[in-house]
Write a structure and sequence with these properties.
Largest sheet: 3 strands, antiparallel
Number of domains: 1
CATH class: Mainly Alpha
Shape: globular
Helix content: 40-55%
CATH topology: Arc Repressor Mutant, subunit A
Distance between the termini: 26 Å
Mean pLDDT: 85
Length: 82
């Protein structure tokens, strides 16, 4: 990965770690048509975040243990990640 993609990926995972977000909000904020900036796809593909539906509610995006490990290694771990 390139440095700009690394920084954006860390920003994205940190944003999700702050609090679980509705999937629609995540897509509105982070979706891109640029094939070089695949932050959502990269984060899901690397198992850093996951989308899950609890009950009949809207799907939520949450950080995974791998995402916590990534943020911790980067010194960017928020207090209430999981």
């Amino acid at each position: 990965m390139s440095a700009p993609s690394d920084a954006l990926l860390l920003d994205f995972v940190e944003w999700i770690a702050a609090k679980p977000r509705p999937y629609d909000d995540v897509m509105a904020a982070w979706r891109t048509s640029c094939p070089r900036l695949t932050i959502w796809e990269d984060a899901v593909g690397q198992n850093l975040v996951k989308r899950e539906r609890l009950g009949k509610g809207d799907p939520m995006v949450r950080i995974t243990h791998s995402g916590c490990d990534l943020l911790s290694a980067a010194g960017r771990m928020p207090a209430a990640a999981l």
